Amino acid sequence: MSGRPILTAAAMRAAEAACMAGGTGAGVLMDRAGAAVAKATWRFAAGAPTLVLCGPRNNGGDGYVVARMLRERGVDVTVAALGEPRSAHALAARVAWGGPVVALDDAPARAVLVDALFGTGLARGLEPAVAAVLVGLAGAARVRIAVDVPSGVATDDGATFGTALPIYDMTVALGALKPAHRLQPAAALCGRVVVADIGVPVEASELTAIGRPSLPAPGAEDHKYTRGMVAVLSGAMGGAALLAATAAQRAGAGYVVLAGGSSVGGLHALVHRQGTEVLADSRVDAVLCGPGLGRGAGAERTLVAALACGRPLVLDADALRLVSPAVLRGLAVPAIVTPHAGEFEHLFGTLPGSRIDRARAAAAMAQCVVVLKGADTVIAAPDGRVAIADPAPAWLATAGTGDVLAGLVAAMRARIDDPFAAAQAAVWLHGAAAEAAGAVLVADDLLDMIRKVVSACQ
Ligand SMILES: NC(=O)C1=CN([C@@H]2O[C@H](COP(=O)(O)OP(=O)(O)OC[C@H]3O[C@@H](n4cnc5c(N)ncnc54)[C@H](OP(=O)(O)O)[C@@H]3O)[C@@H](O)[C@H]2O)[C@@H](O)CC1
Ligand SMILES: [K+]
After folding, report:
1. pLDDT for 2 beyond 70
2. Does the CB atom of residue 55 touch ligand 1 within 6 A?
3. Domains and CATH numbers, the chain
């Protein structure tokens, strides 16, 4: 499983510079970028009258190329500019367009809007008047397409600088995905994200998108223990641990023990044990502690036993209120922790920067894999690698879905040695199960979908 690279603005510029040093001119790249957007627009909008908004620099330059290429396909194109071109390549692209250009304030509404105002160079928010015109024109269009990134978003952290911006139907990412295509609030504006190959070689990146994992079916020589033995430590609220244990079973763990709590029920194949003696069983491949644990003295005893057992740990929910980065750092086997934003801040404090920066800093601080959950889940490894999930259905914002994720992480950790890869596989399965469950899902519905999405990974 190696996800697609995600490049920051600086990394993209470096990749482009290397490509240009190899002899490909910036004008050639701009022509490729514009051609890719024109092709995508043509496919999406079937030649309807199109308004292209062009900014002063290279994103605007791409826009002039789009306009020229759509005109060559016979499309009725109107170009509106925010000021005169201020980069040599944007100027050359405007000259090559050669047609009329109106001021942004005078732009007429058209069925299709192509936004090439600002791209990866944007360093501050759009002026309110510019944002208002953009939102108005987008509202009047049937199809809205952003060139590279929606204008007005910060490429590296997905911020919108507090400005109201349009929601697009499609964003054509040039050369590679950028963080803004995956981090909120920007990601929610992008619509469908299409990555256009503009011939810029992109080297392996520390930052990637989470891709579909490879989870081969068991072989003839496998038995229940080789498929992964998971111990889920229960506590005050047995339902949460039961959800997690069932998720681990459905994700393919060969033997799942629910231990330490008072819960009964679940699938018949689930093994219930009193106490935490199961932790001494050397066949246990992964231990989950946290869902339904509670925060009392009993919870602390259970957590202490888990921390002492020397097995790969997954810590979630209440366990995250009872550990510290120093304790995690002291573990012989790196743990996986799965905090939402509130648990993250409680555990790691207020860290600066984007979600990527914060997750990365926390993973380094605690020497563990951090799954920072949310609408834009970010996973960080202690060595600096970070993976971002594709946007998951907002229906996941409901009780118990985190417990299901924790069970999936434990099941994947039991079969995948690299905790960073295991966490990615689990997050992918969780998102795919939510997609399959559809609207108004509850956590139990995810359990029914896990088998289906695991089979899609064989
Ligand atoms: N790199 C490549 O090889 C290729 C890149 N390509 C394309 O280039 C795009 C990046 O282009 P870019 O770097 O020229 O910046 P871009 O995003 O057009 O404009 C930002 C500039 O605008 C300004 N500015 C900033 N904020 C502002 C504000 N709020 N309101 C007003 N002005 C503001 C600020 O300039 P300043 O005002 O500070 O002088 C800043 O520098 C990229 O997304 C892709 O589409 C393709 O052609 C393929 C090859
Ligand atoms: K744009």
Report:
1. no
2. yes
3. 9-207 (3.40.50.10260), 229-455 (3.40.1190.20)
